[in-house]
Amino acid sequence: MWPGVPGDGLLASFDELAAALGEALEAAADGSSRGGGAAAHTAGGADPVLDAFLMAAALSQILDDFLQRDVLELGRIARHLVASGGPWKVGAAAARATARIAFGLRASGADARRARAARDDVWSLLERIADDVAASVLEGDALVPAPRMPRRGDLASPDVVARLWQRLGGVPKVLRREIGRPPGCYGHFDQHPADCGRLVERFAARWPDRDRPLLVVGLRTSGSYLAPLCAAFLSRAGYRDVDVMTVRPGYRLPGTDAKALRRAAASDALALVIDDPPRTGAQLAQAADLLHRSGFPVASIVLILQLFGGPEAVPEPLRQYPSVVLEWAQWSVHDRLAPAALRATLEELLRGTRCHEDSLAHVIGVAAVEAAESPALLAPARRHVAASYVATLERSDGACVPTRRPSRPASPTMSGVGVGRSRPRRTSRRAWSAATRRGNGSQSSSQTRSARAGGSCGRWRRSPVGGSSRRVGRR
What we know:
Number of domains: 2
Number of helices: 16
Order of helices and strands: HHHHHEHHHHEHEHEHEEHHEEEEHHEE
Distance between the termini: 31 Å
Number of strands: 12
């Protein structure tokens, strides 16, 4: 999930993520000094701006969870006692009271103060990177509005970065060993930053008042990634007062966040709640209930949802709230699985590979890609999308051959692997070479996973930043 960290990138500590963030910022700065655009990409084709965004969002998630963690599991104990019923409810009240006192005492301690300072600096950087990612999407996606705001230049000045490293180095040791949680939106599903832009376009069509305050509430873990992107798109769409915060349903909010919710409700703000595509809707319903208890009317709580299906996929507990949805057929992953897009992807993956181990011929290009079945896209499910294709390969010996034949009906299968360049499962040349060794040299079959087909932003261009979203309760 996270590029630049040891191993497969799926499990990374706070320190490892901070180090990878530094490397991504250096790579982004090098690309910017060379003029941006394609120069901003590393030799492997990755976008250091996207990498920096993933790292900063992961650090933000760890810091928020640290500040909102349960004290001795008292909150969970209280919920269990309430569910048990009977005389245990008295014990639940005592556990809640004790948890409230302990939470307040810990929030005033030195460790919490250092963690809050680090979180504020991480968020200050994260909002700038999110706006840069949004600018790249707006330039390349014809289905979302053009950018309306100027860019702000470099991601972060040397002074800002130096202060950030000082803050991160001063966090408690126990926090530095915490492991980031891979987000479902980019790790398990094929959600993409472009989808946030399409959701904001639909939101703007229904709530066009650019002066009304907006509070984007992300449900962790995915909300730590989706909420800042949503706020960046809103700012670029012309909304002037956009705040962001994240919550983990069932956990107590710090005092600054709780006060910020009440202030936003008193100012007649709209609360936009964003998370993974819902299954039962229980987590989103808990978050919406928290907002309602903080003073937001039901009509002012707007759910921002991607769905595995049509509008009927909205779970029953959520239907009382207004919502903006992106149906399965409207996800941007389908654009990247179009034959024209896959032709460019396959050319990069296969160019220079040997057709099989006993041949001197190698692939020099992809002449054409077409769907192997109609429809090519498989039925939506809570996993990465996949589709089968027939690709005609150009070889160095002058031959031009398809990747399947009637006697060998297997076809290349392109599958999403999420956003980020550290998704190693059956990727690119190794999978293709293993498959062609099973063929006869003129035709081959493979099942290969293309990171770019599933949403990696390796072909994004580097661009400066802009926008004005900010985080509430962090001043």
